[in-house]
Design a protein that fits this description.
This protein has about 325 residues and is α/β, with parallel strands linked by helices. About 45% of the residues lie in helices and about 15% in strands. It contains 14 helices and 13 strands. Bound molecules: adenosine-5'-triphosphate (ATP) and magnesium ion (MG).
Amino acid sequence: MTTDPGRRQYPLLTTRELAAKCGTATTELERRFKPDELLRLNGATNGITPQGVRRFLEGEGVSYRFRVIAHTTMRGGIGKTTSTISTAVRAAQYGFKTCVLDLDPQGSSSMALGAVPAEDDPIFYDIWKQPEELLADALVELGPFLSILPSALENALLDASLLNPGSQKKAVKGVCQQLRIQGFDTVILDCPPSLGIAVISAICAADTVVVPVGSDAFSLKGLDLTLGEIHSICDTFGLPHPAARILYTRYDQREKVSRNALVSIRERYPALPLTVIRTSSEFSKVLAAGETIFSRHAKSGARDDYDRYVSELMGICLEAK
Ligand SMILES: Nc1ncnc2c1ncn2[C@@H]1O[C@H](COP(=O)(O)OP(=O)(O)OP(=O)(O)O)[C@@H](O)[C@H]1O
Ligand SMILES: [Mg+2]
């Protein structure tokens, strides 16, 4: 397994960030942590261990119940992977024991998180039939609260091996259930840009399906088709419908096409929660450095947007308390 977690950094939530979320002064908030939950970062900034954040947020009523979140749309290049890895790193910083399940044969999440499997390392395609025996050894630990089941091209063969509808219904769900048994509370699925069998199986396993969308007509069409498919897949398999959310990525307030697309999505799906992520050159910079937007403490609008998205998704609503 080619991993280089030393190069990639998963730094901590800072006391300043959490204090701002709670509407308290940083010094006051720091008094609520045990000394071994705080770590001095650069300058005068203190970070909080994920265990410490979890203890604190549990005390504030945040639930760490098990959940499976899928990022999927038929449209390619619209932010599924960026959203998967950003969400996973931020969730881990908030104390969720998180596993990324990379189902995309392109393996973009695996690459971005520094976990490209070697030729004979097991991937989802190899382990879905016996997750009890094979999953633990296939996981790559990136940090105490963050792991990944990496992907490789062989996952493209899933469409041929998951022919039986019973297998389609259970394959991803079975692996997620095993992750739960192994102590994870959050599974984040990165899907290929298709509605192939692996994506059908992901939808069957998900509590929440997030559909990223942009301003182009094809991605709006992808949104319609994906939301329609979620309903028909769940009806076909007799499953409850997962919660659906829309994530408008690469939003540019200056562009009329962006503003118009946002209005039209809101009009078309008024009942669905929608989060907007501003466009930012930070994403290409962090990707080139082998990091995510939450590997750095540098402030950016898009980083704030993903933080808000993760807070909504994971039910971290401190201001309302
Ligand atoms: N908010 C954003 N602002 C600017 N660039 C972004 C933003 N979100 C994603 N990108 C960039 O868009 C490109 C495509 O993103 P990403 O790989 O996440 O899409 P994807 O939907 O996973 O693609 P694929 O369908 O190929 O799997 C990447 O270069 C990424 O850095
Ligand atoms: Mg991708």
